[in-house]
Automatic annotation (TrEMBL):
Coiled-coil stretches: none
Family as reported in the entry's similarity comment: Belongs to the zinc-containing alcohol dehydrogenase family.
Protein name, entry field: Putative zinc-type alcohol dehydrogenase-like protein
SMART domains (alphabetical): PKS_ER (SM00829)
Organism: Kushneria indalinina DSM 14324
Amino acid sequence: MSTPAKGYAAHSAETPLAPWSFERRTPRPDDVSIEIMYCGVCHSDLHFARDDWGMAAYPVVPGHEIVGRVTAVGDDVTKYKAGDIVGVGCMVDSCRQCNSCSSGLEQYCAEGFTMTYGSPDRHDNTLTQGGYSDSVVVSERFVVRMPEGIDLKSAAPLLCAGITTYSPLKHYGVKPGDKVGVIGMGGLGHMGVKLASALGAEVTLFTRSESKVAEAKEQGADHVVISTDDEQMAAITETFDFMLDTVPVQHDINPYLNALKPDGTHILVGLLEPIDPAVSGANLVFRRRVLAGSLIGGMPETQEVLEFCAEHGITCDVEMINIDQINEAWDRMQKGDVRYRFVIDMASIKEENAA
Ligand SMILES: [Zn+2]
Ligand SMILES: [Zn+2]
């Protein structure tokens, strides 16, 4: 039997999020039913709902940084039981058979993964709906376990912002002593600083704003470079092993390529648009530099980043909100007015229903 759910949905690109009642699917044998406790607020939620990427489907309940409590499991579920505290990130299904899926890299599924919201379900073609809601039903393969003792509120954003920055640092082999630059100091950037630092790297934060120097150092950056200061940029030529570029809008990456040593790697995790200004081939060719990209992380690695953060005491800096503050939070997020992630306390949706 499908179960009634309450969420906040966008019904068009122009309308604010508003309360919406819908149905969660009848659980399948491999499904985990989850009562949502917290949901992080990611920039992608806003981009998707406002159709900035031309891929929106309505109505849409956004949210893909979900932490909750298991309420029931299907007969085939082996990893979870009622009462477990679990997480759901950006994916809820994939083909499960291609090379990527077989390697635990479901984010690169040859058929495209099923997004937590706004994707047609692979079995019944209904639209998936995300975590700005009181419950969710997800196949156990796409559920992760929250480690014992981790702070659940501030762990929610690890399911997107955390894994997005952790996966490339691991894949490209960042190790103690490496010099890592992190470009941008938003939700992704501040996690990149913390994670690179925990991996033993010497971390430099690149920001355009003088006002972020002190807070970047508080987050664990060893150095801060003001990227608009030509003198500071010239002083770091050929000194970095890696650049983790979290900037989601077009920007000139040539100065950052020149800050890499020979064989250095520049990793894009935020930019989906064409690179503009263009990259000079010479900036790659003359020093055998690598320009790379990376998307979230697979399910095994999503579990791994949670364990890593629990072990190293790493959490996301969050500002808690109630569900009825979500539109205001989106406005503030768009202005960059958040340190560094909003997280919705989903108990507030029950209180709202009771009222
Ligand atoms: Zn996200
Ligand atoms: Zn696949």
